[in-house]
Design a protein that fits this description.
By secondary structure, the chain is α+β, with helices and mostly antiparallel strands. About 50% of the residues lie in helices and about 10% in strands. It has twelve helices and eight strands. It is globular.
């Protein structure tokens, strides 16, 4: 199907760009945006795959974005400051994300979500299709995750958390994980300071060994390393990676459902640990 081909081409473009092949990356991106390639996105193949609602999705997006109107056959799932999430009746595994009031930020978030799932395959929900201008995206629905389930992905960190001096329920494993990610991903003085303050709260005391132990654990944890790379490479807020923004994918894999990427909102670089 066309949208799968487009995803692979854009994934190749991103891969080349990260490795310094800017000219080749730009050429592929240009081909994706050209009419020769983009015309098939409106072909009947997507309608056959998704159902009749797919052919009306541009209209549905305008109704929701401009008027806040949701037609029959489309269910409201939720909304934030920049996007509204809906789901077609009978499609329990799919979500549609639409920018509120046709705002550019919502479109940027949709595009980022599409590119993230290509660059970090399996760590973000799969985007099945999107509008040319990202006025909508079709995404797989991900199940919520519990604190206990989250801890099961990081057995050594979970053991460390269970053995901490401070047993307060105010600091569950999900809170500890945010501090651990700060400790592993930090490459600045402010980052290391933020990690220390976070972990001191969790452990109930000042302990200089905590960050060192976490970094030792990270050396044998591919998932922890991968999350650290995500935070560093696409400027995600470590504090965003809590229960509300994590979930279980279709293969019971850990998935980042939603997270703030600073470049979607501002063009001026900032310290992500502030």
């Amino acid at each position: 199907m066309y949208f799968a081909v487009e995803s692979k081409l854009l994934g190749l473009s991103l891969w080349l760009k990260k490795r310094g092949f800017e000219q080749e990356s730009e050429w592929i991106a240009g081909e994706i945006d050209s009419k020769d390639i983009s015309t098939p996105t409106q072909s009947s193949s997507e309608e056959d795959y998704f159902g009749e609602w797919r052919s009306s999705l541009d209209e549905i997006a305008i109704e929701i974005s401009k008027k806040g109107f949701i037609r029959k056959g489309i269910k409201y799932v939720g909304s934030g400051a920049f996007r509204t999430v809906v789901s077609p009746d009978g499609e329990e595994d799919l979500l549609i994300k639409i920018p509120n009031f046709e705002r550019d930020v919502g479109r940027k978030m949709n595009r980022s979500e599409f590119e993230k799932q290509l660059e970090f395959e399996g760590l973000f929900p799969k985007v099945y299709a999107h509008a040319d201008d990202f006025s909508w995206i079709i995404v797989e629905r991900v199940s919520p995750i519990s604190d206990e389930q989250l801890a099961s992905f990081f057995p050594k960190l979970s053991e460390m958390h269970s053995n901490r001096p401070n047993k307060s329920d105010l600091y569950p494993f999900s809170y500890f994980l945010k501090g651990a990610l700060k400790a592993v991903a930090s490459n600045s003085r402010s980052g290391r300071g933020s990690a220390k303050r976070h972990l001191d709260k969790c452990f109930g005391e000042e302990n200089l060994e905590v960050s060192r132990k976490i970094n030792e654990i990270a050396k044998s944890s591919p998932l922890l390393q991968k999350l650290s790379r995500v935070i560093s490479s696409i400027d995600i807020e470590p504090n965003d990676l809590g229960l509300n923004n994590l979930g279980l994918g279709p293969k019971n894999n850990l998935v980042i459902i939603d997270a703030t990427i600073r470049s979607d909102f501002i063009d001026i670089p900032r310290d992500p640990w502030e």
